[in-house]
């Protein structure tokens, strides 16, 4: 399964043996590079960046670190090795051999799943394209670029599946992935959160913490798929995704650490006093959490969804840790507990397990999201500050599903329109919050120096010191 880097498109799928596919992908490649130049990291095309590149998909030493100009990054096609005799782990085809080709009756759904996942990858690169201009350190700048090139590779992963398994309409979808643009009024990206702006580094870290974690859960569900090429490609994407969430978790941790430290040293508590010291007040950080969490939980879709049931029953998309779950993996007649709004109150009720698979994945995501909050609160506690960050209620600020249209406060109360309007400025980032955070953003790129509002990381990348020259500007 070693990767062939001598080819134009690095791969471990014997691409050279399938000339038609190779030609089709080599035809798509210049469009991808044009897209990268047009809407990839701004002004950064000639930088030498200390990046990791996959050398093999084996767990030991899959990555090699070296200086690379991003347009020369070896984007390619890497699938985990097949598991011999793997069977479909769930749904109505449970126990049958996994599919190596697309089953005709599930073709449209499978294509839709792959396109929807594929669309998020270039979208996040577009959302983050200006951030390099205001990096708080060279270390952070390098991490941003690493995330960007890997999202580019995730696009390659989905485009490979479209080209190889879906013929002409797959190729058309692959073109569409380069044509839509995040936030574009006429041709936006498919999912809401991927059309939001990521204007500053607090938003970037929140995005990588919450929205890349949605990616992790979607990929985990797809890594169980009965369509084996999808399972194998998402398994490898997950190993890259881990770094993205590390960037988010540690980035917010370093911001919280710095704020709490400055608050203690100066005995400052009032947000205005904290801001005057040049760090981000905890209240603003909480409002960013509320925003990014709520737009991200919407990505899981409606809480009751017949599509979700179909994707599962037909063996296309499993649950979080499907194979480890102790049930029949078919779920007919099973139920799942939902929170709903009824007569102005939140109630718990049972609903069919198949129809509520989106909600179940959302709940798994929320449980996973708690870990970072606990770590950040320890930073605050260590400085002896009573403030605690928290996740808002999952019904807060929702646009999709049963909570859409209801007003739910972050602490989980159903409230009226007036209280909602009055509360918004305390719950979601205001123009003033965003302007303040923007005012802190300035380019700090001398090796070893960090912007005032963020603490340095405890260690560097790949065993290098924190003040290593991670980017050479040329
Ligand atoms: Fe990704
Ligand atoms: Fe990611």
Name some characteristics of this structure:
474 residues, mainly alpha, three-stranded antiparallel beta sheet, two-stranded antiparallel ribbon, 7% strand, binds fe (ii) ion
Q: Uncertain regions: pLDDT < 50 for 5+ in a row?
A: none
Strand proportion? 5-15%
- Strand order in the largest sheet: 2-1-5
* Ends distance: 36 Å
Spell out which ligands are present. fe (ii) ion
Could you spell the SSE succession in H and E letters? Answer: HEEHHHHHHHEEHHHE
Describe the model:
By secondary structure, this protein is mainly alpha-helical. 47% of the residues lie in helices and 7% in strands. It is built from 11 helices and 5 strands, in the order H-E-E-H-H-H-H-H-H-H-E-E-H-H-H-E. The protein has helices at residues 19-39, 107-127, 138-179, 201-222, 228-266, 271-276, 282-297, 306-313, 357-382, 417-427, 431-440; strands spanning 48-54, 63-69, 335-342, 345-352, 471-472. Strands 2-1-5 form a 3-stranded antiparallel sheet. It has a two-stranded antiparallel ribbon with strand order 3-4. Helix 2 (107-127) crosses helix 3 (138-179), helix 4 (201-222) runs antiparallel to helix 5 (228-266) and helix 4 runs parallel beside helix 7.
